[in-house]
Design goal:
The termini are close together. Helices cover 15% and strands 15% of the residues. The chain is globular. Strands 1, 2, 5, 6, 7 and 8 form a six-stranded mixed β-sheet that branches. The chain contains four helices and eight strands; from the N terminus they run E-H-E-E-E-H-E-H-E-E-H-E. It is of the alpha+beta class.
């Protein structure tokens, strides 16, 4: 296993303790599931004030390939991951325990996965807060999310995006739930 969707958020909305806290969350979940890899990274971008360059999620996760808990390859490379041919679907975007994450149409939809990224895995230049204060806020703000099940209200490129579908309603746990999330993140082994 070199890729998973976190089975649970940290419980404080989009306040993940910054990138370091998010990476530690990935590491803890992976270790608890029996992974011996020690270089887990959260797929998250950050932004800097005044338009200075932020951190790109795609630059944090290594070169690939990545496979889920059942050994299915979800992407062969960073380029493949950010192309239409990646294999991230509801059936392959499994948790570290090998379980399916609820999506659109399930009793409780948790398909919103925090990324703060544009479709190419780059930090957003959209303006405003797109990362809930670089993953340190659980109140006001917003974060870009993707849909792990590649499904949304309409059949559009954004709604079908695994990493860049829309902004969250806010940064609190309740606001993330209200838009179809649970504070979940993607975790990759930086290989």
């Amino acid at each position: 296993m070199t890729f998973f969707v976190a089975s649970a958020g940290k419980g404080n909305g989009a306040d993940l303790g910054g990138l370091a806290g998010a990476d530690a969350h990935c590491q803890a979940l992976a270790s608890a599931a029996g992974s011996t890899n020690t270089n887990w990274r959260a797929y998250l971008s950050t932004t800097e004030p005044g338009g200075a360059a932020g951190v790109n999620a795609r630059d944090r996760i290594g070169k690939g390939p990545w496979q889920n808990a059942k050994g299915v390859v979800v992407a062969k490379s960073v380029e493949d991951l950010h192309s239409d041919s990646n294999n991230i679907t509801k059936q392959t975007a499994l948790t570290e325990k090998g379980e399916t994450v609820n999506g659109r149409g399930d009793a409780v939809n948790t398909h919103d996965v925090l990324t703060g990224s544009d479709p190419q895995g780059l930090f957003s230049t959209a303006g405003g807060d797109t990362t809930c204060g670089n993953w340190t806020k659980s109140g006001e703000g917003s974060a870009i999310v993707g849909h792990h099940d590649r499904a949304g209200l309409q059949n559009t490129r954004h709604m079908n995006s695994w990493n860049s579908s829309h902004g969250s309603r806010g940064c609190s746990q309740d606001n993330l739930k209200a838009t179809g999330g649970a504070g979940l993140i993607y975790c990759f082994v930086a290989n």
